[in-house]
Amino acid sequence: MKTVRNGIGSVAAIALLLSACATNETAAGGSADSGTQSTLAGTLQGVGASSTKSAQEVWRAAFQTAHPKVTINYSPDGSGAGRTAFRDGGAAFAGSDRALSDDQMSGRFASCAADTPPLNLPIYVAPIAIVFNLEGVSELYLSAALIAMIFRGEINNWNDPAIAELNSDLPLPDLAITPVHRSDNSGTTENFTATLAEVVPEIWTDAASGDWPSSIRGEAAQGTSGVVAAVQNGVGTIGYADESGIPETMTVAKYSKTGIGGYVGPEAAAAAALVEAASRANQHDPNDWALKLNRNAVGYPFVLVSYAIVCQEYQDPATGELVNAYMSYVVSDAGQQAAVPHAGNAPLPGSLATGVQAAAASIR
Fold first, then answer.
1. What is the pLDDT of residue 30?
2. Domain limits, CATH 3.40.190.10, in the chain
3. Which residues sit opposite 75 in a β-bridge?
4. Distance (Å, rounded) from C-alpha 344 to C-alpha 8?
5. Is-contact 78 49, C-beta < 8 A?
6. How far is 351 from 247, CA to CA, in rounded Å?
7. Which residues lie below 8 Å from residue 350, measured CB to CB, with a gap of 6+?
């Protein structure tokens, strides 16, 4: 069963929770006891990763409470949709479960001032859970090799000897396995396939991609919610989803790289450990914080880092001011901690947090 609380859907409920704490705390760059009214005003549109939906609800509610004249909209249409909207000027910022590639970094972005770069700012760190629906089975132990073979369709039945070997005490049925994957271009898919490609490259021979490999069959579903619904409503189903989007009642698998002990689940602490071991992927700009994860460095490798993709400088200074203020709150210690009860994220650690906070403050 899940052990981390999932996100809640009601922005109003989140706002009530946050306002209850506001008497003694400074939230979203404004103080509840200062008696001063924020003069910040305007509307920001964000589009992107569905993984950050719950966290964005918290951040938006807190920021709008502190800045009543500001409206923050976020449409969780998927990472690919977010990157496209940001490139074309349909969004002031994108949410993406991967950083822009080198080729994309050198492209033209409609909202950015000429000759200024986009920035990849990590805002959300969370594990990806392997979810399943198997009647009578409330726990499941899987190795990296088994996960890869199941999703490739090389293991097709739940009572396959390879699964039974790691789950000898479980009543595994003679039942076909139905793997469920994302139908849309997804950063969750890219992180899931990147993990398998890095940890078991001899089995997962496809390159990491936000698009599910066309040669691999399975049931396809739109977005995190679609995958979760397909697994919940199916029989013998298994899928992958950002932990924050999974209901409390859903069952998740435990993981071991080799299948020889040391099983761990999709906990925020495991995600934080992976990010702490990461290095910076590039140095396009001192304020760019794209990360390179070493997925063999820690016990649970199915982890995503979701980025806010923003302009270093916006063509419209008013937009730059709003993005600066909102992102500065999102990556602040207060913002990161505020999301935890609802999204189950791991707050940005140590020097990474310091660097990203400085980068957000540089947006103009």
1. 53
2. 11-125+280-290+306-361, 127-271
3. 47
4. 11
5. yes
6. 33
7. 276
Q: What is the pLDDT of residues 199-255, one digit of tens each?
A: 999 999 999 999 999 999 999 999 889 999 999 999 999 999 998 889 989 999 999
Tokens 């791991």 sit on residue = 346
Amino acid at 181: H
According to DSSP, residue 118 is labeled E
- The DSSP line for 185-225 is --HHHHHHHHHHHHH-TTT--SPP-SSPPTTS--EEESHHH
CA gap 243, 216 in Å, rounded: 24
pLDDT for 28: 66
The tokens 């760059």 sit on which residue? 29
pLDDT tens digits along 289-322: 999 999 997 789 999 999 999 999 999 999 999 9
What's the CATH architecture for 127-271? 3-Layer(aba) Sandwich (3.40)
How far is Cα 325 from Cα 235, in angstroms, rounded to an integer?
46
Nearest to 299 by CA among 331, 263, 323, 349: 263
Among all chains, which residue has been given the structure tokens 């990474």?
352
What does pTM read for this prediction? 0.84
Where the chain has pLDDT below 70, the residues are 1-36, 283-284
How far apart are the C-alpha atoms of 183 and 219, rounded to whole Å?
A: 9
CATH class of domain segment(s) 11-125+280-290+306-361? alpha beta
